[in-house]
Specification:
The protein is mainly α. The chain contains 12 helices and 2 strands. It starts with a helix and ends in a 5-residue tail after the last helix.
């Protein structure tokens, strides 16, 4: 029983420390700490003293690292975020700690609940944080940054999600699920509509000598001609900056200014919220899907 509470406390502590580093240390999470959490999770996996559980735990963590690496390489998630989720999964591969009798998909990897809940939290946090921020920066130019294609995409997205929502209502959805879906649809539509002004509030233009490893480039703000011109000289040019790519950029296009995400939301914040929700509330999909009532 003591080990159960150690696992519970460890998960919360790991997620909390990642968040504190991400927020207060300029998004710089020490490499030693990152790999230490992975090693600590491996130790707790061994302490199950059960070969099947240990192999299951290791398999889930390896799958997270493999899929996460692909997501990291395309510039959608930081390497530390991927390792954090893998470490948490090693500490608790399958949710069997239910302090508040949380609703869960029984037998589902705990990390999946964390990922889903974190994604929903991020979906809400992004417009709440970036719409006021982008408006304060752009002010009178705010509306002019919204293009016709953004309006079309937002309308199509809103209609598509609304049709799915009607399907859920028809087959039965809980009150909490109704609230979650309503907020999610509004947030997705806003993010789609205001993607450009929100992105402008996240970036700053930098030459390659001021860009660092693992920086993310906002290619969606660059015109196709500029991207093509850079790729002619640096074919591997993409969203994620690696040491090799940076060396080529600094050598072959040293004067080009690229839009770099420098004010993006620290994803360790929604991960921490996702961990708390997954532990004490459960997988939020339970409330959304009709069979989760």
């Amino acid at each position: 029983m003591e080990l159960v509470y150690i696992r519970l406390g460890s998960i919360i502590a790991i997620a909390l420390i990642y968040m504190l580093f991400d927020v207060f240390n300029n998004r710089d999470i020490p490499t030693v700490f990152v790999y230490a959490t992975l090693a600590y999770g491996a130790v707790l996996t061994i302490l199950y003293f059960n070969l099947y559980t240990a192999l299951l735990s290791a398999g889930i963590a390896i799958a997270i690292l493999a899929v996460g690496y692909v997501v990291y390489k395309i510039g959608q998630l930081g390497a530390a975020d991927v390792i954090e989720i893998a470490a948490i999964s090693l500490v608790l591969p399958i949710q069997n700690i239910i302090p508040l009798q949380a609703q869960l998909f029984q037998g589902m990897p705990f990390a999946i609940s964390v990922i889903i809940d974190s994604g929903i939290v991020a979906l809400v946090m992004v417009p709440l944080y970036y719409i006021p921020k982008s408006y304060s920066i752009l002010r009178h130019d705010f509306l002019s940054k919204i293009e016709k294609r953004d309006i079309r995409r937002s309308v199509v997205t809103f209609v598509a999600y609304s049709l799915f929502f009607l399907f859920l209502i028809y087959y039965g959805i809980s009150t909490i699920g109704f609230a979650i879906m309503t907020v999610a649809i509004v947030c997705v539509a806003l993010i789609t509509l205001l993607e450009r002004p929100m992105t402008l509030s996240m970036i700053s233009y930098q030459k390659p000598n001021k860009i660092y490893q693992e920086d993310i480039i906002a290619i969606n703000l660059m015109d196709k001609t500029s991207v093509s011109a850079i790729k002619e000289k640096v074919p591997e040019f993409g969203r994620l900056m690696t040491n090799g790519l940076l060396d080529d950029l600094r050598t072959k296009v040293p004067e080009v200014k690229l839009p770099v995400y420098r004010n993006a939301i620290p994803f360790a914040v929604p991960i921490f919220a996702g961990v708390i929700l997954a532990l004490f509330v459960g997988n939020l999909l339970v409330f959304i899907m009709p069979f989760g009532m």
